[in-house]
Amino acid sequence: MKISYNTWAYSSFFVWVPAYTLDETIKRLARLGYDGIEIGAAAPHAYPPHLSKDRRAQVRDLLQEHGIQLSSMLPAPSGGPGNNPASPYAEERRATVEHYKELAELTAEWGGKTLIYLPGWIIFGTSRRQAWAWSREVLTEIADSIAHTGVTLVIEPTSHDTNLCVSADDAIELMQDVNRPNVKLMFDTFHVLYSREVISDYAYKMASDLKHIHISDNDRLPPGSGVGDFESLVDALIDIGFDGYLTMETGFHRRGIEPDEDARTSINYLRPLVERKLAEHAARAQSGAPA
Fold it and tell me: Which residue from 1, 87, 176, 260 has the least number of CB within 10 angstroms?
């Protein structure tokens, strides 16, 4: 398991927080010891239409120079052209497909393997069945169109950004409906906690299809700062053989956050926890005790 950090806290997204260039963000996260960086596809960092060929090469070289991997990319939930795969407007659905195709190419160009899929939201007057069908059709087209890139789409159920795909069961159902080898699952512990569910249950439910995780305590706090049971989560991840990135998505919920402090607090809690749990499981396996 490797540890990554999402760039929202460094890019003034959702609420105003201190904003930095992507170059500066990469340097800071590498210095703090992160294995990876999850880049949000929004200005000022990585909105595809803003990135020239030279700029794309600069970012790729900067990642290599600082020894940090692109763990994943994710689209902003909305934007000027729209990004709702469940929209009743065909033009918005088409823009969403094209945006994801651009993001998959960019992800691959920067050495990444994972692109987050947000299933969209139901617009008043549209039935859930119809919205689901549109999102399924969009996801299927994207998956087929980007198969050559080697990038995997991971469906994220969320409590805040959708009224269509809000639970582990919803995400599993959508994955099964699409039935493509490059469509898998992820979850965000913040949303699970907000829904008053158990975060380790999501790991066991998603099992071998779980390829990515967003880590956050309640209220977007660093892990270990709130009510989340991350010890049980790491135990569950070891049980299911998870070997993806644990990506912090914290520190952008209010003004007054210092991104470096948030990133430092997060990794200083999670890295030792993962190492301790791996050692405990290895010791039990060596002794023949039940895992």
Answer: 176
